[in-house]
Amino acid sequence: MQAVPNIVIIGGGAGGMEIATKLGHKVGRKGKAKVTLIDCAESHVWKPLLHEVATGALDIGLDAISYRGHASAHGYHFQQGAMIDINRDEKQIVLAPINDEEGQELLPARHIPYDYAVIAIGSVANDFNIPGVKEHSLFLDNTEQAMSIRKILLNKFMRYASHHQLDEKIKIAVVGAGATGVEMSAEMHHAVEQLSGFGYKIDTSLLEVTLIEADERILPKVDKVEISNSVTRELKQLGVNVMTNTRITQVTPEGLSTTEGNLIPSDMVIWSTGVKAPDFLNNIGGLESNHINQVMVKQNMQTTLDDHIFSIGDCAACPQEDGSWVPPRGQSARQMALMTADNIILMLEGKAPKNEYVYKDLGSLVNLSKFHTVGNLMSFMGGGVLVEGKIARFVYTSLYRRHLIELHGVVKGTLMMLAKGIGRIIHPHLKLH
Ligand SMILES: Cc1cc2nc3c(=O)[nH]c(=O)nc-3n(C[C@H](O)[C@H](O)[C@H](O)COP(=O)(O)OP(=O)(O)OC[C@H]3O[C@@H](n4cnc5c(N)ncnc54)[C@H](O)[C@@H]3O)c2cc1C
Question: Which residues form the FAD/NAD(P)-binding domain (predicted)?
């Protein structure tokens, strides 16, 4: 029997999960190709929800999707492991060994053969090599980090609730006022409100969150200044100290130093500034990459130097007409994933991968926990429409709805959204363990 081509997708995030599912349905189930998804984690949590995981507002026990279970139901295979290299001569993805908690090797390094590979491993926050950031900050790049923030944050809140001096505050600095930093700042206030509702002696007046941004306004990547202004107003009303035009030069256990020589005292720093692809992607396998390690791709998402390797999502450098790169967003990852699946299917049929990606900005929405949602819709239509409140909240959740529908189909995806909604009514609004 003739072997079928191997399609290997590395990274099961917003983009990788959708391309694996689509290829599983279209070619995996029909035996036209073997589709394998590789991820370093066991289960998928949609990244835009990580700030909710970090504050305990979202229980990943309810929201995470097991890769193995999903793979077996959708025509693809799953292998757990972290990609560390690619051997283009042998057409193999190299995975690091897997160790247990004591450091004992469970699985040795593996080499996974591919005919077509899709690199979709996302991005991490950029520390810009600022001294002390790595050592003294927490990051929100993956579920593990979000869970560790949750543990530290809730322990801090609970310890504080039983031992605090009246004049003391919990000082938390969030560096980077993009969507992640802004949403995280609001979510922390929500967490404290919930704890207070559970009878803990803590309230939001004891929380001092400082949101720090180098640009002259928060949400600098969002075109509409009105959105920045509206979010700034709302954050200030919550008591968040918003500092713009502020550059951090060092992080120490005491706090953050600025270019002006000031110290921003802080008990905890959450670093959410900038985006870069993981360092090991820089020129991986001799492929071209840009200054933030993103793999350079052509408009059809094939890498510039190898037609059998594609890259999508945050880790791909896809050029736009005006010379900029496609922005690292959930919506671009998803659009690239669905189009790249079509291109790979064309190649399997011996045709040219002719579909070319053009970023269609459907808009940006910022959700300040339960307090406020604001954003801009249909930006690609020139200017777009400003939305706030319940409509904005509905559209904000629709990106996640579409993701679930892509992964599970219309009926199951909609039922899952409903079940999550019901779960949020039945279960406490904060996961405390
Ligand atoms: C708090 C927060 C809020 C956000 N809100 C929005 C929003 O409202 N709208 C929006 O459009 N975007 C939003 N984003 C951005 C969005 O989450 C990303 O742009 C999107 O997830 C990128 O998708 P991706 O598939 O490229 O990568 P990811 O979704 O990050 O997935 C990468 C996957 O690769 C895996 N992986 C990483 N390294 C390896 C390795 N070496 N080997 C194997 N697997 C690996 C990871 O485990 C992960 O599963 C938000 C991000 C954050 C953090």
Answer: 6-324
